[in-house]
Amino acid sequence: MTDEPLIEYRDVTRRFLSRAGAVTACEHVDLTVRRGEFLAIVGPSGCGKSTLLNMAAGLLRPSAGAVFYRGVPVPDPNTDVGYLTQRDTLLPWRTTEDNVALALELRSVPRTERMRRAHDWLARVGLSGFARSYPAQLSGGMRRRACLARTLAYEPETILMDEPFGALDAQLRLVMHDELLKLWAATGKTIVFVTHDLSEAITLADRVAVFSPRPGRIRAIEPVDLPRPRDVFRIRFDPAFGALHDRLWSYLESSVRSDVKVA
Amino acid sequence: MAEADITGDPVAASGPELPTAWHAASRNERITVILWRIGIAITIVVAWQAASGRLIKPFWISSPLAIWDQLVAWAITGELLMHVEITLAETLMGFVFGAVAGIAMGLALGLNRRVAAVLDPFIVAFYSLPKIALAPLFILWFGVGMTSKVVMATFVVFFLVFYNTYAGTLAVEQELVDVLRLMGARRWQIVTKVILPSVAIWIFTGMKTSVPYALIGAVVGEMMASNKGLGYLIQAAAGQYDTGGVFAALFVLAIIAMLLHTALKHAELWLLRWKEEAR
């Protein structure tokens, strides 16, 4: 990781118009993602975390403020980022290998070369035997892994992940954490990882940004001083993990509790 | 029929569960089903033959044997083949022209929403119109020959395919489009790799629904004014109070419709094989 800023949110506010009136998803967000870092964004659901990712991808414009990528305003779309959304976005009419090779196909990489790279990534996420299967024939966890392979296969500079493992069972999620950290260590990508799970954020990230409920504002940004490489299966029992979890939870707790009271 | 196709999931309408259940059934079960079908068919034919002349006058219901004789007679003179060929040619030409134009127009408007918004009331007006009501006009314009029937079938097919294609482009998931945009896809790549494949099911549903209507368009046109085709055959036989002739022509028409339907079903299973659930 370097100190070079890659994504910068400067006093960003985003509102949406709905039938009930204007809803402010996030407000006055100042946040800098450094090149090569693994940043986690944690907050209650509906606090505008996905909105932040959409703005970094250029799919949404801020209502006020600005988002910069490599020092210039984010273009629409920002083709330097790979985006792993909450939902499966595999193309259902393509086999797994053709899905993983999709971005390479768009770049006119010859078929043999893109198949070689697709199979390489399928092997890394443990899907070698399913190259010719269609998404409908895969389990939810396998589809997630295929999405991950597709995002990594074309090596975008930055990867945005929106609760990518939310739908997986606890064991599989840990396995995916382990794979993700290995891939990240090997490739040196910048990752922005949105989650509502504090433990997941601490396990993976260099820094954790805690958001308040809607309208989302940054409550705190804390570095995670846990050594790497991390053992995702045991790191939870590290005393430093517990201390950080407590501290971050104190930021979250008040907002979650007040949210419940309001509701 | 078409309203449901526009709003609903087009695949649900075509019922992909049926063939799966069929394949899952054991061999014995399948044989039982086939034996039942043969049994029902034989029962109907025998009951019909028995009733004819005993319970009901043959003038009203003819009889299977008389129908068979009529079919054989038509076959020998070559009349049957000629009429079938005419009707089939009208149906298929109408189907091809209508489908091609419908897909092209549906995609064009689906990809140019502003134009679509302007044309919307005109489209609805044409779509809501019972197309058969146009037959007299087409006969007036294009004469009693094949052309008016081809135009009729084309028109019917066009609107079904057009509307399904158009609705399909509106149903394309924006998330899938965004994924490709972020990967740096160009506009034409988004069209060929996301929009066309996701609209394909809708197009196919439209085409499948429209085949029987193409046949209806052609036959209705023939019944109104013509001297060839199965519609003419029905009309001519009815004009001579020849119930057997009417039934014989209807029988041939039913077989043609069934063959078309089966061919489409197989084509769909193959084209949409990715839809198949994990076994």
What would your notes on this structure say?
The complex is a heterodimer of chains A (263) and B (279). Chain A is of the alpha/beta class. Helix content of chain A is 36%, strand content 25%. In chain A, the strands form two sheets. In chain A, strands 6-7-8-3-9-10 form a six-stranded mixed beta sheet, sandwiched between helices. Chain A has a four-stranded antiparallel beta sheet with strand order 2-1-4-5, with helices on one face. Chain A is globular. The model of chain A has no long low-confidence stretch (mean pLDDT 90). Chain B is mainly alpha-helical. Chain B folds into two domains: 14-51; 60-275, MetI-like (MetI-like fold), CATH 1.10.3720.10. In chain B, α9 crosses α10. The chains are: A alpha/beta (263), B mainly alpha (279). The A-B interface holds A 57, 59, 77-79, 81-83, 85, 87, 89, 91-94, 102-103, 105-107, 133-134, 136-138, 154 and B 173, 175-176, 178-186, 189, 193-194, 197-198, 200, 274-278.
